[in-house]
Amino acid sequence: MSEEVMAIFKAAGAILEGHFLLTSGLHSPVYWEKFRVLQHPHYTERLCGFIADHYRRSEVQVVAGPTTGGIIIAFEVARQLGVRSIFAEKEGGKRVFRRGFTLESGERVLVVDDVLTTGSSISEVMEAVARLGGIVIGVAVLVNRAEQDKQFGVPLFNCLRTVTPTYTPSDCPLCAAGIPLTRPGSEAER
User: Which residue in 27, 132, 165, 173 is deepest, having the highest Cβ count within 10 Å?
Assistant: First the structure.
């Protein structure tokens, strides 16, 4: 599976090299531009199929993801599992379910996201699920690029595991070398 996932990301031109500011605030020489993959329904269907197949017997009732890439992944995994999908948005420094999204007490939720680096988005969605009384039964991501294994207290499934270095801005060798910093998805790139 990992070879197929890597081939999909390469075919879509989604593995970028340079000096990038990640959403987490960390810097990295590699950026996984998941939207270059997610713009292709056949790639999205295939990748989300790996996740759906992995959790098919887990009695998932709802698939939840964070905005923005997580919305697409949650929808497609939920479609393949035949369940609902919802997403959590940032509000007041935390993620919340708005737009009329609810969970029943004890409802079994699979949390999905596109790329795992620090795990903060996933943790925030898990907290939002808990606040509504849902039970997170697993976590899944397309790409796990975290330097260290992340523990969420539930099983973690990734379509691709790859270690990509990240640096705090103060310790970034790319900054020290004077390589310009790119902010993917920022207004400056549009």
Answer: 27
